[in-house]
Description:
The chain is of the alpha/beta class. The protein has a single domain, classed as Ribonuclease H-like superfamily/Ribonuclease H (Nucleotidyltransferase, domain 5, 2-Layer Sandwich), CATH 3.30.420.10. It contains three helices and five strands. It has helices at about 45-60, 95-110, 160-175, and strands at about 5-10, 15-25, 25-35, 75-80, 120. A five-stranded mixed sheet has the order 3-2-1-4-5. The chain starts with 6 loop residues before the first strand and ends in a 5-residue tail after the last helix. The mean pLDDT is about 90.
Amino acid sequence: MPNPTLTVLGVDPGGRSTGLCLIDGRDVIAHRTVENAAEKMLPIAQPYIADVLNAIAEMYPSPNDSQMHYSLPVLAVEDVVRPSWHMKGRAAVDPSALLATAAVLGAVLAFDPHAHPVQVRPSRNGSRPLGEYPATLVSAAERRGDGWQHRIGSGQLRHARSAYDVALAGAAQHLNGAIK
């Protein structure tokens, strides 16, 4: 019997956009980016939080899903870390993006009290060369030109790529028993 794989929904929360990527092993089952339509990040727009949670509900497989290899899918979400408030000795950084991201993170962590989400430390998620990602996470526009495989993508799919990396890291943490 082949080794079962782990199904993980990775979430890259953000104040402007939140990326989601559902994987089974290293295979992408689905991905999505939810955009915040509000003009300002703060106060965080409740419709945006609702859209993020609805997207998770649509993508998060139930334990009875035929694609599942384990009884419960893993929910992995990128955590926030203490910022450095000053940039190279200059003025303090505006904390709006961090605060908005933390609001989305809190909503995701509260999504399912039985999920025991894995919190993944930020680590340049979504910043690997495009050629290292599954084809579904690289747009046709990003594939234009020679050497695209070695470039770092900056298109809308970067949020889904970040969520993919979060899902992979969450799977590793889950399998190593490092659940927070």
